[in-house]
Design brief:
UDP-galactose 4-epimerase, domain 1; alpha/beta; 6-stranded parallel sheet; 15% strand; Rossmann fold; 11 helices; 14 strands; binds nicotinamide-adenine-dinucleotide; binds 2-amino-3-ketobutyric acid; globular
Length: 319
């Protein structure tokens, strides 16, 4: 693992993960790539390439140019946007993924990491403490692509000996880059609107409870799994990872501890049905046993850090 290509590096997770990878592996050894590169991005400190990952030759060319031995593929169309354009979600989430696996296989790369999601679960999955091995019958196109992606990853491990790793992230909450059109986006938007307007209208109901994770834990989980010894892994492309679970009501109460006159109201839309199809909480004992996963942030610790950082952005006129 010397030279890493991050695909989808400009998104919510990639924009922070890439910078941390460069701290760990060296700035010149981590290539950031995305469909369109934003001028002035912090990622410009190191190598950057425009890449549409649906183009297999383009992945191969960049991989050869930088002698890539590890790919992290974060390119995706998330759940809410995926319901607006299911064929695009399939195209990006599956075709770009199999391109990545094929290039990695042909070039005999060390490993590929690709995230899955709690969206791989569906209404028939046990909701509480959802097990590692369970029913996978999602009802969104995004979830269908995540199940297929997990199965493809495990297939490449078994058939070709390619080292593929993946985690079922819960909703990821962060303050650097806005989320890219998912159902859990409310858990980020609430903090921005709390700082800007002292109130928020939520697109899912007060009782909606989902598994969530703060970005520092997401980065840690991803890099810990990336670095784990292959021989200790019994699972490959589908690790459950949990950190916290809360309802929107509990999230609002957490904000009120630090901003007492904050208020919230509710206007559920099509994303309510998506949220209702996902688990309440996750059993991540396989990740804890196989690569020592342990989250650091709980709801109130996250709330304090989110409010602090978003207030700084607001004071600087950035939001
Ligand atoms: P995001 O939407 O913020 O970023 C995805 C990036 O992929 C964007 O920068 C986009 O421009 C890029 N992209 C889209 N199509 C592309 C293509 N054809 N070629 C190259 N790049 C392309 O997503 P994210 O939240 O950073 O998610 C990263 C991964 O983590 C995805 O696999 C997602 O399913 C998974 N995940 C995210 C969350 C979350 O809450 N953020 C939760 C569970 C799983
Ligand atoms: C979404 O809401 O689509 C993502 C996810 C949980 O995969 N944040």
């Amino acid at each position: 693992m010397k030279n890493i290509l991050v695909i989808g590096a400009c998104g919510q997770i990639g924009s922070e993960l890439t910078l941390q990878l460069r701290k760990d592996f060296g700035i010149q050894n981590v290539v950031a790539s995305d469909l369109c590169i934003k001028a002035g991005s912090a990622l410009e400190e190191g190598p950057m390439e425009t890449l549409d990952a649906r183009d297999r030759n383009a992945i191969a060319e960049i991989s050869k140019k930088y002698n890539i031995d590890t790919i992290i593929n974060l390119a995706a169309i998330l759940s809410a946007n995926g319901e607006k354009n299911p064929s695009l979600a399939w195209d990006v989430n599956i075709n770009a993924l199999i391109n990545t696996f094929e290039v990695a296989r042909e070039m005999k790369m060390d490993r590929v990491l690709v995230p899955s999601s709690i969206a791989a679960f569906g209404p028939t999955t046990p909701r509480e403490n959802t097990p590692q091995e369970t029913i996978l019958e999602p009802t969104t196109m995004y979830g269908i692509t995540k199940v297929a992606g997990e199965l493809l990853g495990d297939y490449y491990v078994k058939k070709y000996g390619l080292d593929v790793r993946g985690l079922r992230y819960p909703g990821i909450i962060s303050h650097e880059t806005l989320p890219g059109g998912g159902t859990t986006d409310y858990a980020v938007a609430i903090y921005y609107d709390a700082v800007k307007f002292n109130k928020y209208t939520c697109f899912v109901s007060a009782e909606t409870r989902l598994p969530m994770m703060y970005m520092p834990d997401c980065i840690k989980a991803t890099i810990d799994l990336l670095k784990a010894d292959f021989d200790t892994l019994k699972h490959h492309a589908n690790f459950n990872v949990g950190a916290m679970s809360f309802s929107v009501d509990e999230l609002a109460e957490s904000i009120k501890k630090y901003q007492p006159d904050f208020s919230i109201d509710y206007a559920p839309d099509y994303r309510q049905a998506i949220a209702d199809s996902w688990p309440d909480s996750i059993d991540d004992s396989a990740a804890r046993a196989e690569w020592d996963w342990k989250p650091a942030f709980d709801l109130d610790a996250m709330t304090q850090d989110m409010l602090k950082n978003i207030r700084i952005k607001h004071e600087k006129g950035l939001i």
